[in-house]
Amino acid sequence: MNAKQVLDVKGLACPMPIVKTKKAMEALQSGEV
């Protein structure tokens, strides 16, 4: 399996990792997770 997108949220304070993850997941198409 190859990654189409990598999201690095290391070092960010809450709630930014959650916000960035949510936005990234909304941009994905069905079956890309």
Describe this structure as you would to a colleague:
- The chain has one helix and no strands.
- The protein has 33 residues and is mostly helical.
- It holds the Pfam family TusA.
- One of its GO terms (molecular function) is transferase activity.
- Keywords: Transferase.
- InterPro entries: TusA-like, TusA-like_sf.
Q: Would you count the extended β strands for me?
A: 0
| Helical residue percent band | 25-40%
Quaternary: single chain
Instruction: Specify Rg, calculated over alpha carbons.
Output: 11 Å
- Tertiary shape: flat
**What amount of the residues lies in strands?**
under 5%
pLDDT < 50 runs, ≥5 residues = none
Profile the largest sheet.
none
Helix and strand pattern: H
Number of alpha- plus pi-helical segments? 1
Structural class: mainly alpha
> How widely separated are the two ends?
11 Å
Q: What value does the average pLDDT take?
A: 89
